Amino acid sequence: MSTAVLPTSSVNSPRTELRELSRLAIPIAIAQGGQALMGLVDTLVMGRAGTSALAAVGLGNGLFFAVSGFGMGLMMGFDPMMSQAMGARHFTRARGLLWQGGWLALFSGLVLGALLLLTPPLLLLGGIGAAEVSGARDYLLWRAPSMPLMLAFLMVRSYCQSTAYTRPLVIATVAANVFNVAADVLLVFGGEVLPAAFGPLRAIPAMGVAGSAMATTLCTAVQLGVVVFAVRGRPLVGAESSTRLPVWADLARAVKLGIPIGLHFSAEIGVFALAGVLAAGLGPASVGAHQIAISFASVTFTVAMGIGNAGSVRVGWA
CA-to-CA distance for 281 and 279, rounded, in angstroms? Predict the structure, then answer.
């Protein structure tokens, strides 16, 4: 791959640094914003399915991200390691860290996914209606399998950021958003909404809340598939073959760096999830309104987070 955007021994002027940062940050921010946009589309589609369904998705989504936030933080433990390896031109190590991140995504994703399925009964303690709790349980049952897929995507995203190969992130985001709109409508409302020309797709039943979760899980698989395909087809020049087995020293270092970040994310996201639970105590309409507001806010927040990620990559290169 081209390494033209990687650091040199010279010190960049503020204007040059801003230009290089923007070149890296814009596609990352687009990818981050697109990720949140899928959640917004889910919310808008479920709003058409009814207040109770929207409330169930809002509660399930809040629980998912409260739990997955810890996993996201764990994966971010690889960010400085990856950027430093690229900055030092240790391309073989960078490729090896990608494999180690895959192992951590698998291990932590399975554990957190199983833990996620235990959370719906906690909603009953908040005085939430049985219909909303049942809907949230259905949502998480189909959303939990996306946990290791999402964490693996975050790892490949970290690799793409660190190697300045950000085009696949944008392509994956666009593909996933297009797929998400179609999958949401089809799985939530069923194939009956389609014209007769779609043939067998018209036989797909309406799945409601579970359909929204299934659509999101499939979108996550699409995103992961796109970036993995892109990375496999673009090896680093000069990188030698690296071990694909777990390297416990690298995993331990990433976990040590990632645990504080994960705890921070879980606490921060957990506050919003708790707000959703408290809103649910006021009725389905309240938690639905909360979910809509959070979905819009997430789009702007994740764009800013993408710019921050680009800054951390530039620091790691130095």
Answer: 5
The contacts of residue 147 (CB under 8 Å, 6+ apart) are 68, 71, 109, 110, 112, 113, 116
Spell out the per-residue pLDDT of the chain, length 318, in tens: 444 345 444 556 777 777 877 888 888 888 877 777 887 788 888 888 888 888 888 888 888 988 999 999 999 998 888 888 887 778 788 888 888 999 999 999 999 999 999 988 888 777 777 888 888 899 999 999 999 999 999 999 888 888 888 889 889 989 998 999 899 999 999 888 777 777 888 888 889 999 999 999 999 999 999 999 988 877 665 556 666 788 899 999 999 999 999 999 888 888 887 887 777 777 777 877 877 787 777 777 777 777 787 777 777 776
Element (DSSP H or E) covering residue 242? none
pTM for the whole structure: 0.87
Angle between helices 14-49 and 209-232 (to 10 degrees): 150
- Angle CA 56–190–51, to nearest 5: 25
- Can you list the alpha helix ranges (DSSP code H) found in the chain? 14-49, 51-76, 78-87, 91-116, 120-124, 130-143, 146-162, 167-189, 209-232, 248-280, 284-317
Q: Taking the domains of the chain in order of start, what are their residue ranges?
A: 32-191+201-317
Q: Coil, helix or strand for 200?
A: helix
Question: What is the token pair recorded at 58?
Answer: 């809002």
Closest by alpha carbon to 188, among 213, 170, 167?
Answer: 213
What is the secondary structure of 171-190 as a DSSP string?
HHHHHHHHHHHHHHHHHHH-
Residue 195 Ramachandran class (φ > 0 left, ψ -120 to 50 alpha, else beta): beta
